[in-house]
Amino acid sequence: MTTTTSRIPFPSVDTLVVADAGLETWLLFDRGFELPSFAAYPLAGTEEGRAALTDYYSNFVKIAASLGTALVLDAPTWRANPDWAATLGHDRQQLAELIAASVDVVHQVRAAYPDGHPFLVSGAVGPRGDGYVVGDAMDADTAAWYHSFQIEALASTPVDVVTAMTLSYVDEAIGIARAAERAGVPAVIAFTVETDGNLPSGMPLGQAIEATDEATGGYPVHYMINCAHPTHFAGVLAGAGSWTTRLGGLRANASSLSHAELDEALELDRGDPADLAARYRELRDQLASLHVIGGCCGTDHHHVDAIANALCAR
């Protein structure tokens, strides 16, 4: 079991941190895995799955090593919460075992990495619901109770931080931050937005960040935007208020399609890595705290390599 004293602190804003990309879309379209419920965590329980996951993470290790940046890799646990596990036939004991196995994949990749720049292991936390649609919203107390199982399971592994991604409404973000604080593990909160730059709940991004900070005493290490294209949110960041100083990370989609359009798409839209890298570079110029860069749906190590090189060159 890890302890808070053994966790690697998250790098400061003056350190570029490479993150990984769209794991699930890479597994589906590049490796041909079937992912019921879009869940990758069961692969950690098979030899073939662990080998594929190791290959995936190794690509990002190479990028960070070549550029001399820090690195944070998320365990494949985005869907590893009780409701989604039940759809896959996993009870809580099986889920806890697969969460530990998922973290171990990344931990073993780190064990083979030479000492030098920081390499953090993150436990990915996903929404209780769909991610693109709010659905049955929880209040913050219920969200803290619900997510505590997964977060406590992650906190007992060698994770340095938990990263909640694709959150669509503020009460779930508050609950996750509170559950992480109770478990004694740092947390990063990532909201997704629609094409108008607002959360799927309709709340403006800045308001969501401010409300989460107010309700949690500023517990999150920082905030991120994920699972949206820069064209969807760049407009709400330009000239925005002080809340933008809390935006520390970005994991954008390759495609500029809306969530609804992506749900209907039959082929993967990989976008243009060079264009995406240029947009990250423009956002880095606007956002003084932006230092964690990775990708989401449709992106892979080619996109992250282009982004990281563009920012290092700047």
Describe this entry's structure for a reader:
The chain is α/β, with parallel strands linked by helices. It has one domain: TIM Barrel. Strands 1-2-3-4-5-6-7-8 form an 8-stranded parallel barrel, surrounded by 5 helices. Strand 5, helix 7 and strand 6 form a beta-alpha-beta unit. Helix 2 packs parallel to helix 4. The radius of gyration is 18 Å and the shape is globular. The mean pLDDT is 95.
In brief:
The protein is 44% helix and 13% strand. It has helices spanning 23-29, 47-67, 82-87, 92-111, 140-155, 170-183, 205-216, 230-237, 259-264, 273-286, 301-313, and strands at 17-19, 70-75, 119-125, 161-167, 187-191, 223-226, 247-252, 292-295.
Keywords:
314 residues, alpha/beta, TIM Barrel, eight-stranded parallel beta barrel, 11 helices, 13% strand
Element-level helix/strand string: EHHEHHEHEHEHEHEHHEH
CATH class, please?
Alpha Beta
Number of distinct beta strands: 8
| CATH architecture label name | Alpha-Beta Barrel
Question: Residue ranges: pLDDT <50 for 5 or more in a row?
Answer: none
Average of per-residue pLDDT values: 95
DSSP strand content = 5-15%
Largest sheet: 8 strands, parallel, barrel
Count of alpha/pi helices? 11
Gyration radius (Cα, Å) is 18 Å
CATH topology group = TIM Barrel
> Which of globular, elongated, flat, extended, rod-shaped describes the shape?
globular
Given helix and strand content, the structural type is alpha/beta
Percent helix: 40-55%
Cα(first) to Cα(last) distance is 40 Å
**Which sequence of strands runs across the widest sheet?**
1-2-3-4-5-6-7-8
The tally of structural domains comes to 1
